[in-house]
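hey so i finally got around to running the thing on that chain from the lab meeting. sorry it took forever, my laptop kept dying and i had to restart like 3 times. anyway pasting the input first so we r on the same page abt which one it is
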Amino acid sequence: MTLKSFILAAMMAFFACTANAQTAEPEFIGEVFHLDPAGQTTLLEKQRVVVKTKAGASMYIVGIGKVKSKINIKGGKSNTRFPASEKLQLIVKAVDNESDPMSIVAIFKFKANSKSRKAELSSLSTFGGQSDNNMDFVDFTAKKYGESSYLIEINHLEPGEYGITVTNPNNKDEKNLIVSCFGID
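ok and heres what got predicted. didnt touch it at all, straight out
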């Protein structure tokens, strides 16, 4: 082997290694991978949600009370589980990674029982009080990852059930709401 061919082979090996150094992005917009410390990825469970709106009993009886809208997912626990001690790293695919991730990625905690997971979207009171985005949001840090994803890091999640939604800021007619779900034990 000549010196020239040796250098060429070494350069090709170096570029092949650096090209594969970053884990692949999820395939579809809105999908979320968990990135473990060894660099392996797991696709989070995806669920369609049902939005339910209910009025309190007092609203029916005396016409005074609250009306709440909640997202609901069947099943009290996600099949995708992580230990509470682990710093969570997630790769979230978006339309692009030019937007502030806080404006398009929402990570929130569900209120869960044995049959379902719920998160309150909004409430409206008889006397004009209205509030939106009433979910129990989780703080995270994020940075650009790949061509159109974000690498999100979350520290110290308490045990429970969680969901992630990704919206498209360029789309005026959002499709079905899909939630990527996971649980912390």
